[in-house]
């Protein structure tokens, strides 16, 4: 019998790509999502790629009563927890929404896991926990700095909640995955990043500007201490990232984990600036992008990229897709949305 995995936020960007990879690997997947930043039609794309339409519940992880009913009706081997508000800029302006959604959802899941014999949880964390790093690239032993945004702080606090809960003797395991910057779309063009309203992330704003939905892209600052003055990030292909979750859940459920809580950085090990990303987009798309330099944005980190050796050597996972191919996949996804009249 296939092992059953609960994927929270499974109709979202990273969640949907991970569901595809889980199903391709033979897992049975159940998705819950409140559809606050995703569309239920994503299930169609998942089914077209994998040949399986996962069971879906429209549900909010902050609703503990609803979760309790879900756990009574289903038996889960493990959980991958994506459901969270995730925009740095928005979190600065709506901190309480971020603290309520991101902290309560995790606490509810953790409380329910022991009584329902769930073995472990893979947690979607972020490189934002490192704050403004002293040096790059950064590995898992780099110091945790004061968060630059409420969003980043929720990731720090959630990591601490998991570690404290496991340390208390809770009969679960956890693997915490600290992402760098996921971009791109599935090569099939069936799923990709589809934000509700104005995009909060860079690449969908680039592609929407390129296709003419947005009039102009704002680049937040060109006076940082970087080669071209714009911020530097470690951009990772979303399918590469999704595959890391499959490796992590297999490791956890097969009791290969060396510790009850393990932490891995997921990145390429290379940094690219915002202006470099724009140039790559213009190259692969043939479109000249309308952008302007504006003031710095509160909460942004100057430069950060991963030292992914631990994930490479311990998990046996490596980011493989090039930045050019990844940007091309995002552009193909955007063109497909336009052809369908979606966006």
Question: How would you describe this protein?
Answer:
The chain has 343 residues and is of the alpha/beta class. It has two domains: 4-184 and 235-266, 3-Layer(aba) Sandwich (Rossmann fold); 202-233 and 269-338, UDP-galactose 4-epimerase, domain 1 (Alpha-Beta Complex), CATH 3.90.25.10. The chain is built from eleven helices and 13 strands. It has helices at residues 13-24, 42-50, 64-73, 88-93, 95-112, 150-167, 202-211, 238-253, 274-285, 309-315, 323-340; strands at 4-8, 28-33, 55-58, 78-81, 120-126, 173-179, 181-183, 217-220, 232-233, 235-237, 261-266, 272-273, 291-294. Strands 3-2-1-4-5-6-11 form a seven-stranded parallel β-sheet, with helices on both faces. Strand 1 (4-8), helix 1 and strand 2 (28-33) form a beta-alpha-beta unit. Helix 1 (13-24) runs parallel beside helix 2 (42-50), helix 3 (64-73) runs parallel beside helix 5 (95-112) and helix 7 (202-211) packs parallel to helix 9 (274-285). It is globular. The model has no long low-confidence stretch (mean pLDDT 95).
